Amino acid sequence: MNLNRPAQTKHSTRSFWLTLLLIVVFNGIVLVYFHNRFWWPPDEGVYAHTAERMLNGEVLNKDVEEIHTGYIHFIHVASFAAFGTRLVSMRYPLIVAGFLQSLLMFLIFAPRNLMVAVVAAVCATAFGVIQFLNPQPSWYCLLFVTAIAFCLTRFPDRKWTIPLLGFLIGLIFFFRQITGVFAAMGVLTYLLTMKKEEATGRNTLLGRGLLALMLGGTIVYLVLATNVSGWILIGIWPVLLLADALFRSKPSNRTAVEAVVLLGIGFVVSALPILLYHLFNHSLTTFFDDTVLRAFDIQQLAYLKVANYVVQQGSAARILFQFRSFHEVVNGIFWLALPLAPVTAGALALKRFARSRSSADVGPLPVLAVFYALVALFQQIPIYFFYMFPLTIGALFWLSLNAKKRSVAAIAIIGVAFSAIAIHYHAGQPVTRTLGGILRGNRVALVPATTIKRAGLWVEPESLRTYTELITAIQANSQPNETIFVLPYNSELYFLAERRNPFRFWNTAVGIRPGKEEQHVMNVLRTSPPRVVVIAPRDRNNTPTSEAIIAYVRDHYSLVQTIGSFEVYRAR
Q1: HSE on the CB side for 170, CA within 13 Å?
Q2: Are strands 557-563 and 566-571 parallel, antiparallel or unpaired?
Q3: Rounded CA separation 94/520 (Å)
Q4: For the stretch 74-86, what's the b/e string if a residue is b when 16 or more beta carbons lie within 10 angstroms of its beta carbon?
Q5: All residues at 6 or more sequence positions from 418 whose CB lies less than 8 Å from its CB, including other chains
Q6: 310, 384, 368: which is closest to 340 by C-alpha?
Q7: At what angle do helices 236-248 and 205-225 cross, to 10 degrees?
Q8: In degrees, to the nearest 5, what angle opens at C-alpha 236 toward C-alphas 243 and 311?
Q9: Per-residue pLDDT tens for 268-322?
Q10: Per-residue b/e over 18-50, b at no fewer than 16 CB within 10 Å?
């Protein structure tokens, strides 16, 4: 029996279309409702500010700094051109990506079990974009890696499959570099170990060499990027899988060459548009500088290493056992259990691979999920956990398909229950709840941001008051043709106040290197000072460089107003 195709009976066909319709309706209701009910202005502002400058003719990585590889901005430029220069415009392609990711998850499971397919699709949405409705490249990467799992599951033997996988890996890479590397490792590991080959001697050098390279690279990344918590919950599983494959699998050199060449062809095709763009605009050098050298710099920001998933579990356990309210108990269970998902998926995938020595027996979805979970280690906070969790929970569902019907049903019920918790207590809720509020499941009522012309969103009242006052102060103290300077971060103020940025960067921590770049900023402040400077003196992105600039501004500018955590200054 071919498990990749639904049984061709009238009953099964009708059931398929009815369940597909159910998923479409569910996504239509949930995604449309939440599409404008959240903002995190500092991150959202980066994408809006960059897209507007590109829309006005500036060149990415030449006139506008950006550490991501770029494709995300062309989506936002198109959104602004089609729907207007408002923050909500960037949500429309984001919501489409969330819908397609849920649909692909449904189609992966539909030939095997329609009930599980529905639950997997629901979970993909419940734990997906609605948890952090910010036009981040990570959400598009999640769509593309799900598409990779779909192709490997449903079309494993087609001639075009591997080049298409390479193309999708390329798209992931040119949305977010490190995520593309993780996806590539998952795909390459799967392809090298898919068949139980028995190559010997030198005929295994290339395949094993690739496995050794990926193993070494993963270990180095984990040592540099994470802590014991990250190793235990997420990092150890790709390491053990690669080690098992390295010492026990015997892929032939031919298999390795075919995989690398065909993936490479697809990758090159995906890279052509961005490379031609930079060749045409003479910006290849700055493209490399921004997306490689500066991208490494951001990894050194101290606050990225502070959070810890295991510590968060401990906090969730304390909340749970205080038994103070229903919503705290269910959210304590929720946050205590969620980080165990990558542990369970990794352990089960490793056990199945060790037994069979074939990644095909494990399944594309679990193998990819084991590697893709590494994205959650960039910063151990709930947001980054959700970037990978839809794929991880899909892997758990896949690994449970051969269990007894009652067990599968129980897992499906748990998936639906946890999805309900995720939607009710966390979807569209502001980051300003703080970690304690998130772990307790506290809810904040949102209001339409009618006083901010370029928003089109529903936001928390305190944030709305702060930004309305900031925009009013900036516009009252500057003219539309004048520049303002915001530091160290908060580029949303350029966009929302409709004022120009005199510099190519949007974050002083990454955009100003000591030496020439720092001197350039000081020269601009002395010779053609921005009319208004907005400072966030307690922002975590402040560095000695930004502190020196802040000191200069306080000496040479007049304080106009203090609004929330911001200070607004006007040139004398």
Answers
A1: 20
A2: antiparallel
A3: 37
A4: bbbbebbeeeebb
A5: 123, 126, 334, 337, 338
A6: 310
A7: 160
A8: 175
A9: 999 999 999 999 999 999 999 999 988 887 777 777 888 899 999 999 999 999 9
A10: ebbeebeebbeebbeebbbbbbbbbbbbbbbbb
Mean pLDDT value across residues 379-407:
93
In whole angstroms, how far apart are CA 151 and each of 121, 163, 192, 276, 364? 17, 11, 16, 28, 9
Polymer length of the chain: 572
Average pLDDT in the chain: 94
Closest among 409, 393, 286, 401 to 339, alpha carbons compared: 393
Find the largest Cα–Cα distance for the chain.
79
Left if phi > 0, otherwise alpha if psi is -120 to 50, otherwise beta: which for 363? left
| Residue 332 near residue 442, CB atoms below 8 Å | no
**Non-local CB neighbours of 183 within 8 Å, separated by 6+ positions:** 141, 144, 145, 148, 168, 169, 172, 173, 368, 371, 372
3-class state of residue 450 by DSSP:
coil
Burial class (CB in 10 A: 0-12, 13-18, 19+), 2: exposed
Q: Is the dihedral of CA 398, 13, 5, 21 positive or negative?
A: negative
Rounded Cα distance, 193 and 273, in Å: 32
Residue 59, token pair as written in the block: 């060149």
Q: Which two tokens stand for residue 43?
A: 């991150």
Do 448 and 458 contact (CB within 8 A), yes or no? yes
Answer left, alpha or beta for residue 308, where phi above 0 means left and psi between -120 and 50 means alpha: beta
Closest CA to 47 of 377, 536, 507, 475: 507
Q: Is the preceding peptide bond at 238 cis, omega within 30 degrees of 0?
A: no
Q: DSSP letters along 337-394, please?
A: HTTHHHHHHHHHHHHHHHHHS-HHHH-HHHHHHHHHGGGGGSS-SHHHHHHHHHHHHH
Burial of residue 497, with CB atoms counted within 10 A of its CB: 0-12 exposed, 13-18 middle, 19 or more buried: buried
Phi/psi of residue 444, nearest 5 degrees: -120, 130
Question: Which tokens belong to 222?
Answer: 């984990």
pTM of the complete model? 0.94
Please compute the mean of the pLDDT values over residues 226-243 and round it to a whole number.
Answer: 94
CA dist 183 and 181 (Å) reads 5
